[in-house]
From TrEMBL:
Keywords for this protein: ATP-binding, GTP-binding, Hydrolase, Nucleotide-binding
Protein family membership: Belongs to the GPN-loop GTPase family.
Pfam assignment, any one: ATP_bind_1
Organism lineage: Bacteria, Bacillati, Actinomycetota, Actinomycetes, Kitasatosporales
PANTHER family linked to this entry: ATP/GTP-BINDING PROTEIN-RELATED, GLIDING MOTILITY PROTEIN MGLA
Protein species of origin: Streptomyces violaceusniger
Residues spanning the signal sequence: none
Name under which the protein is recorded: ATP-binding protein
Gene Ontology molecular function, alphabetical: ATP binding; GTP binding; hydrolase activity
């Protein structure tokens, strides 16, 4: 069994599926990355979640996380077929700063990133955006609206996050398949526009 051919831009090719694109789903701690991948994956997602313990209480700030008891310690993985020609492999990164090395490894071969943002914890998104830009990945912003949080206008969020005018910004609920799919499609369209 030979290895699968890979194009110059890191896209895997084979007979059944012409294009398989690696997409990162990133964001700060407890923003909903695992939930998002679980919602969108057509296969049972691979999860590396562990129960949070008292030992990590001084490291992981749980303020504003609404009952979080587990955390991703390596990655989440899911797959989504968009068409006969395009399959997305979704890789979710851990949100804590101590896992930055994992991020570096996961950026290899990625075509882009969907950055999940909690509108109530905007400042926690800055280091994430900085990392994605550092690795040179094009990205879209998906504002994950949790129950009971006010909806903020896109322009207010764009200014708060200091985004370029062409950076897509969409709203989603990571538990909802339709709104999460819209967020992924915004990223895919943006990536396609950049290659034209």
């Amino acid at each position: 069994m030979g290895s699968r051919p890979v194009s110059d831009d890191g896209v895997y090719l084979n007979e059944a599926v012409q294009i398989a694109a690696k997409i990162l789903v990133v964001g700060h701690f407890a923003v909903g990355k695992t939930t998002f991948i679980g919602t969108m994956s057509e296969i049972p997602p691979l999860r590396t979640e562990e129960r949070m313990t008292q030992a990590g209480a001084h490291v992981d700030d749980l303020m504003g996380t609404r009952g979080k008891t587990t955390t991703t310690v390596a990655m989440d993985f899911g797959r989504l077929t968009l068409s006969e020609r395009l399959v997305l492999y979704l890789f979710g990164t851990p949100g804590q700063e101590r896992f930055v090395q994992v991020w570096e490894d996961m950026t290899r071969g990625a075509l882009g990133a969907l950055i999940l943002v909690d509108p109530e914890r905007i400042k926690e998104s800055f280091p994430v955006i900085d990392l994605v830009e550092h690795y040179g990945l094009p990205y879209a912003i998906s504002v994950n609206h949790f129950a009971g949080t006010p909806v903020r206008p896109d322009e207010e969020l764009r200014e708060a996050l200091d985004l370029l005018p062409e950076t897509p910004i969409v709203t989603c609920d990571a538990r909802d398949e339709k709104s999460s799919a819209n967020a992924l499609m915004a990223l895919v369209r943006y990536l396609q526009e950049r290659t034209r």
